[in-house]
Amino acid sequence: MVLVDKPAPLIGSIIVPGDKSIAHRAVFFAALSQGVTRIIGLPEGSDVRASLNAIESLGAKVSLAVDGNGITVVEVEGWGDMGPKPRVSEDVLMLDCGNSGTTARFLLGMLSGYPITVRLDGDASLTTRPMKRLLDPLCSMGLSCISSSWPIEIRGEEPLKPIPFELPVASAQMKTALLFAAMRADGTSRIIEPALSRDHTERLAEAFGIRIEKLSSEHGFEVTGPIAPCAPDVPIAIPGDFSSAAFWITAALCIPGSDLTIEGVGLNPTRLGFIDALQAMGANVSVERIDDLSSEPYGRIRAIYTGRLRPCETVACDSAMLIDEAPVLAIMCARAMGKSLLRNIGELALKECDRLNAIIEALSACGVKARAIENEDGSTDLLICGNGELSVSDGTKASAYRDHRIAMMWAVLSAICHAQVQLDAKDIDSISVSYPGFLDEFSQRLGYAPIVRFE
Ligand code: S3P
């Protein structure tokens, strides 16, 4: 596709792949369960595939199919009371987590409670990501950490000791990993986070018969082990991924003439910090809740091109509710007139790449000043000086640092600027971690390819 004068407005409706976060959790609960769990709407990205491969290597039976509507359905027969039975008989079972931090952290939590030795490895990005803050509490429960640097080697213990634990940061991956361990502990564990992070685990636990006592005075819960999940009688249905929808929402709000509805998307309130920020900025975006799917609200989001935007200041304790949308929220702030402040988002530096720097670099390539501010309390904010304009030269060679969300951010930036930005093949391929079809569908709807490949 050649470069056109301007991108076509985004009109009509679309659906996005199933929610990656919910999918990982459904796959893990299913592996631990007695019985067969049917999961409908599994996303096809390589992250969830890493989780499926791992549970299969550990002895769960996995069968994948695509139904008549093109929806991926997976059936998982868990190991239940038998515990994991590695497929290959090696002293140390190797599990490749690819690019997926969720897979790695969930495996560490889940395997802490079984007396098997496992070595976890991953790609060049994953093997730089912090695991110590999770390994420390798991070791205090009884996990033996043979190597805490990558490849990480652990040996679990049965039963584990229960813990009270306060997470240093609001992290849904950590609290979920600790819950998996707490389910294999003998007694009551209490897990508290400083602010609320996504609560998909708490919602899904119920469907698998795991009783979690939510604390009323703090963000957290208690769980009493040992307790094993049970495959639900009804299938787990996964709504569309809000974080994938966020790229479309941003593009529609920024490309003149657009009026786009994302159908069937998850509307869990702990994920919607981006929508709150957009509405505070005056963006024409509306949310309509339709119903619940497996305890998760879903519905449609309509985004209509909005010319003028106010800057925004997000609330520090809500940062976990918009962390994955920070790249696109930063685009919106860049398009607003004035200074925006995204508070307490230092965790961005620890994602698939250092997203804090990647965002600053991308905005600066588009003529917008942005910088990180280190606060005295140790938190980090992102200041963006929006001037209502974004522009990037056609043919600009950019780097997405092999990070799917930064690569998609570049696609949206490029489309908004009516440009064609170049990324290398590995950056483009990284999109398949969460949204393999994104670039094709985006290019098709825009009438041109906003991203092209250089070698
Ligand atoms: C996720 C939690 C978040 C998020 C990640 C997915 C999850 O990470 O950034 O993309 O599924 O629990 P942290 O828990 O590390 O903040």
Hetero ligands: shikimate-3-phosphate
Q: Reading side by side through the largest sheet, how are the strands ordered? A: 1-14-16-15
Given the C-alpha coordinates, what overall shape results?
globular
Helix content: 25-40%
Question: Structural class from helices and strands?
Answer: alpha/beta
Tell me about the largest β-sheet.
4 strands, mixed
**Average of per-residue pLDDT values:** 96
The beta-strand count equals 21
Number of helices: 13
- Low-confidence runs (pLDDT<50, min 5 residues)? none
Radius of gyration computed on alpha carbons: 22 Å
The oligomeric state of the chains shown is: single chain
Rounded to the nearest angstrom, the distance between the terminal CA atoms is 18 Å
Query: Beta-sheet strand percentage?
Result: 25-35%
Structure report:
By secondary structure, the protein is α/β, with parallel strands linked by helices. It is built from 13 helices and 21 strands. Strands 1-14-16-15 form a four-stranded mixed β-sheet. Strands 3-4-2-13 form a four-stranded mixed β-sheet, covered by helices on one side. Strands 5-6-8-7 form a four-stranded mixed β-sheet. Helix 1 runs parallel beside helix 2, helix 1 packs parallel to helix 3 (about 100-110) and helix 7 packs parallel to helix 11 (about 405-415). The mean pLDDT is about 95. Shikimate-3-phosphate binds near residues 174 and 198.
Topology:
Elements lengths: L10 E4 L5 H13 L3 E5 L5 H12 L3 E6 L5 E6 L15 E4 L4 H11 L5 E5 L10 H10 L2 E4 L4 E4 L8 E3 L5 H11 L4 E7 L6 H8 L5 E2 L4 E7 L10 E2 L4 H13 L4 E8 L6 H8 L3 E10 L2 E9 L21 H10 L1 E6 L12 H11 L3 E6 L5 E8 L16 H13 L4 E4 H6 L7 H9 L4 E4 L1
Parallel strand pairs: 1-14, 2-13, 5-6, 9-10, 20-21
Antiparallel strand pairs: 2-4, 3-4, 6-8, 7-8, 10-12, 11-12, 14-16, 15-16, 17-19, 18-19
Helix pairs in contact: 1-2, 1-3, 1-6, 2-3, 3-5, 4-5, 7-9, 7-11
This protein binds shikimate-3-phosphate.
